[in-house]
Amino acid sequence: MNYLNGKINSGIISVLLGASFVLLFADRIFFTGKDSLVLFLINDLIVIITFIILSLYLLKIIREKNPTPSNLVLNIGIINAFIFLAIIFSENILNFLFENISNRITQPGLLESIIYTIYAFVFLIISSYLLIVFKELYFHKQNRGRRTYFLAMLIFMGLTSISNLLFKTPRYEYIINSFFIISIVLIVINSIRISWIAFISKKEKISLLILSIIILTLFILNLVNSGENDFHGKILMNFSPSFQQFFNLMLLYGAIYFSVLFFTTLFHIPTAEAYDRKAKEVSSLQYFSKLITQVLDFNELAETITDIATKVSSADAAWIVIKNNGSTNVIANKNIAYVDADLINQFLLESGVCEKITETKICNLSKFAKKSQLSEKFGSIAVSPLKSYNEVKGYLVAARKNDSIFYEEDKIAINTFSDYASVAIENSILVEQSIEKERLEKELDVAREIQRKILPSKNPYYENFSISSVFIPAFEVGGDYYDFFEISKEKVGFIIADVSGKGISAAFIMAEIKGIFESLSQMIESPKEILVQANHILKNTLSKKSFVSALYGLIDMNEEVICFSRAGHCPAILIRNGEVNLFKPSGIGLGLTNTNHFKEHLEEFKIDLKQNDNLIFYTDGITEAKNKELEDFGDERFIKILLNNADQTVEKISNEVIKEVTLFSNDHSQYDDITLVILKWNKKNNYMEIKNGRIQHLN
Amino acid sequence: MAEFSTSIKDKGDVSVINLKGFLDAHTAPILENNFVDLIDKNRFQIVVEFKDLAYISSAGLGVFMAYIEKIRDSKGDIKFAGMSDKVYNIFDLLGFPLLYEIFKSEDEAIKKFVETK
Q1: What is the pLDDT of residues B39-60, one digit of tens each?
Q2: Which of A258, A287, A299, A557 is geometrically suited to a Cys-Cys bond with A308, CB 3.0 to 4.6 A?
Q3: What is the dihedral of CA A218, A220, A221, A225, to 10 degrees?
Q4: Mind giving me the DSSP string for A405-468?
């Protein structure tokens, strides 16, 4: 068969086909009736060549259409019916049209020659078509190894046909007979094991069964009616003895093939349903993979699940019930009104069907009191739990209408599917959570970045005092803020503040605070007045829930004085001569109350600075740092460290504090930002410079 | 952070919200809901009992700020009672005693409501 499967140039074939037709036609018209063996041989040779080319041509056409076996069988049936009619009625019709034409088969005139040739041509095409269709049927879902048998069968059919021409004498008839018998054997061999039947559905099998018995009958009738002595047989015999033989062999092949097909189909019918179910299960596997790709959108997933559930379980409707804090709600209802689904849910939950359910349960609605309230007649329900981590998160419910009910066998498919659906839903929830978590982390990254940019990158340098500042952000940005504002050569303002709340909203308020104090500090000197103005702005812009604690101070290096006001912030601490002074002048947090009330209660405090005074400003991240037992680090520990290290440099003091806080809260995550600013006063013109970690007095 | 819960009991016209545990940004919505419910029921005389509260963060303080205006506009008030020293210090730092009346005990706070009527 290789030559048939090879690449065929359709152009060349069409030309060849046309040429051979013309040649054959000419041969038939001009050389009929001339009793010459040579002409006889040439005639059949042309017929054979035409047949081969025709077959190649038809093969190409059929291949392009890629028909199913059922289509091919139906085509065979139609052609067979045509052959049947042709054989039965051709003599009468032709006799009616052309008077007594049947008597002149062997000695035809020109007209008769033409008619007979056309008739034969039609059958040439038909038999060629049959051959190709049989070939396609044979190779459908067939192993490649069986090629040889088919090729051998064709060869022997050919040999039988040609020998019919050459050895049509009693002496050599045994040659024809032996080729014929071998052909029959090969036809039988090739007709058994029709593998494609297994792959068609039960419905198709039944129609195939009916079709095959009809076609079988037609093949047998045609075979019987196309003997050499019948009108039809005579025409073909006259046209080409080998073709006549081949045509009959084709009919024989058809009869055998279809009788085998009939019985094979018959034996396949009982198992057809099982095959159908398996096929359905396999195709539902494909649905399952669909579930995996849809985990990104929970609602879409739910819709897909109910959609597939109806297909897998052949249900009329399906929906999902999701348990949510004790209540249940229906989602993704498919082919059922929400109200109906809800009514049925109530019944399922109240009747206790859903209690301790571990696999698909089937129940009918005959005991359902409110059944008449349903807008459609649902009668049978299959409930499957949707589990995740052994906890039932909801149910997948499938329903059938009217009298069709769920059977125990249906349970397996539904149960398997609901297991898959559970996994898909669980995955979807996990994906959603991780996306949400990632979004929050991104948001916090942004907040931290804002905070980092808002805070001063380095401390300003002044001859009269040294500054250290430490800022340790919490994971969730806490909203701590500190800054220095150079007002003139002698004056520097500073602020330490803590915004209520956390995360990105706190970071934005910080940015606003920075803007407010940057500009106010340049316009107003009085810390109290600055805070009053800041409160005025913030009271109008902050949400009711938000507020800011702040401490604003102004250092005058000429006067050697620090002046500050405290708006709800942690106290300022002064360590002087080994003693602690806590300054907590009255003041309400920014944004908590209206400007008058705020101003009324805001005090301004002045400290004359002395040599080696340590001024400490901080946020509650230090004093409220917690250990494993949730104890606060507290003021006492804080002050003790400050006292013990008062003689050290500001860096050293600050390092000690941070070290102790870190050790204290080692087992507990840092919940709030930590800010610590320490100033150490060096009397005018008597400042210290730190070199290589050692303090040197320059004067 | 650890758990937080509230309970509300009515004593005459006064509603007492008892706070328990840790009140921070994550648990604040629970208390917010309490206030919303009370406002819905037109109960504007509210005492917040702090004796079982272990910790309050700035977000927790923000809850009172969110509803105080509306409650005072409706001739009501939020009064605080039973604060531990630690909790009081947090309120005190921010100047809350200048904004809210703080009492040693729940009874004193209720009494104040009754007297001013």
Answers
A1: 999 999 999 999 999 889 888 9
A2: A287
A3: 130
A4: ---HHHHHHHHHHHHHHHHHHHHHHHHHHHHHHHHHHHHHHHHHHHHHHHS-SS----SSEEEE
Specify the range with the lowest mean pLDDT, choosing from A144-153, A378-387, A501-510, B35-44. Answer: A144-153
Backbone region of residue A407 per phi and psi (left: phi > 0; alpha: psi in -120 to 50; beta: other values): beta
Position with higher pLDDT, A122 vs A288: A122
Give A569 to chain B, closest Cα distance, Å: 6
At A11-39, the pLDDT tens digits run 777 788 788 778 777 777 776 555 667 77
pLDDT over 60 (residue A696) = no
Cα gap A691→A410, rounded to integer Å? 86
User: DSSP string covering A258-292, please?
Assistant: HHHHHHHHHHHHHHHHHHHHHHHHHHHHHHHHHHH
Contact A630 B66 (CB under 8 A): no
Closest Cα partner for A153 from A189, A123, A192, A177?
Answer: A189
Look at residue A693 and tell me whether its pLDDT is greater than 60.
no
The verdict on A568 touching B (C-beta cutoff 8 Å) is yes
- Asked if A614 and A643 count as a contact pair (C-beta separation under 8 A), the reply is no
Q: How many helices (H) and strands (E) does chain A have?
A: 19, 17
Q: Residues near A122 by Cβ (< 8 Å), separated by ≥ 6?
A: A86
Q: Are A484 and A679 in contact (CB under 8 A)?
A: no
Contacts of B2 in chain A (CB under 8 A): 630
Which helix (DSSP H) or strand (DSSP E) does residue A248 occupy?
helix A241-293
Closest approach of B60 to chain A, Cα-based (Å):
9
Give the integer Cα–Cα distance in Å for A217 and A80: 10
Shortest CA gap B36–chain A (Å): 14
Summarised one tens digit per residue, pLDDT across range A253-297 is 889 989 988 988 888 888 777 777 777 767 766 776 767 676 677
User: Using the beta-carbon criterion (under 8 Å), do A502 and B59 form an inter-chain contact?
Assistant: yes
Residue A45 host element (H or E): helix A37-65
List the single residue in B62, B93, B98 with the smallest CB-CB distance to A545: B62
Task: Supply the DSSP symbol for B102.
Answer: E
CA dist A219 and A250 (Å) reads: 9
Residues in chain B with CB shorter than 8 Å from the CB of A632 are 86
Q: What is the pLDDT of residue A10?
A: 66
pLDDT band at B108 (very low <50, low <70, confident <90, very high): very high
**How does the average pLDDT of chain B come out, rounded?**
90
Q: How far apart are CA A507 and CA A91, in angstroms?
A: 102
- Interface confidence (ipTM) of the complex: 0.91
Per-residue DSSP letters for A544-565?
Answer: TT--EEEEEEEEETTTTEEEEE
- Collect all residues of chain A within an 8 Å Cβ-Cβ radius of residue B66: 543-545
* B63 alpha carbon, distance to own chain's centre: 9
pLDDT at A8 exceeding the cut of 70: no
What is the pairing mode between strands B77-81 and B101-103? parallel
Q: Render A114-130 in DSSP notation, one character per residue.
A: HHHHHHHHHHHHHHHHH
Min Cα separation A674/chain B (Å)? 15
Q: Is A237 exposed, middle or buried (0-12, 13-18, 19+ CB in 10 A)?
A: buried
Beta-carbon separation of B62 and A498 below 8 A = no
Give residues with Cβ within 8 angstroms of B19, minimum separation 6: B4, B6, B31, B48, B49, B50, B52, B53
Report d(CA A498, CA A676) in Å as an integer: 12
How many angstroms separate the Cα of A557 from the Cα of each of A211, A357, A531? Answer: 112, 80, 22
For β-strands A688-691 and A694-697, DSSP reports them as: antiparallel
For residue A144, pLDDT over 70 is answered with no
Comparing CB atoms, the residue among A502, A571, A588 nearest residue B98 is: A588
